[in-house]
Amino acid sequence: MNQFAGYVQEVPMGYRAMLRFAKDARPNPIVGEEGRPIIFATEAEAWREVTKHLLAYFNGDLRRDGETLMAHRQAAEMLFRPGKKPIPVETRRRA
Questions:
Q1: pTM for the whole structure
Q2: What is the pLDDT of residues 77-90, one digit of tens each?
Q3: What residues are paired with 29 via a beta bridge?
């Protein structure tokens, strides 16, 4: 159910890079600017794109509908603490 996957699918003209994220029910191909799946000449190129996109997802801001999660957090803090500043959080090292 909540799985992430990336694989390469062979098609008549080359290879297609496929990605499945936990939020989706099925895998989708990596698409170009026109919205059509990109066909890679070699399997290695397709794997390189799968790796690049998976890492970008995990290392990115994990956006939700184009906004970062910080915007949602600030909206929630204003809902529960109207008119007050957000609570500053400090991290201290153990001695």
A1: 0.60
A2: 777 766 666 666 67
A3: 18
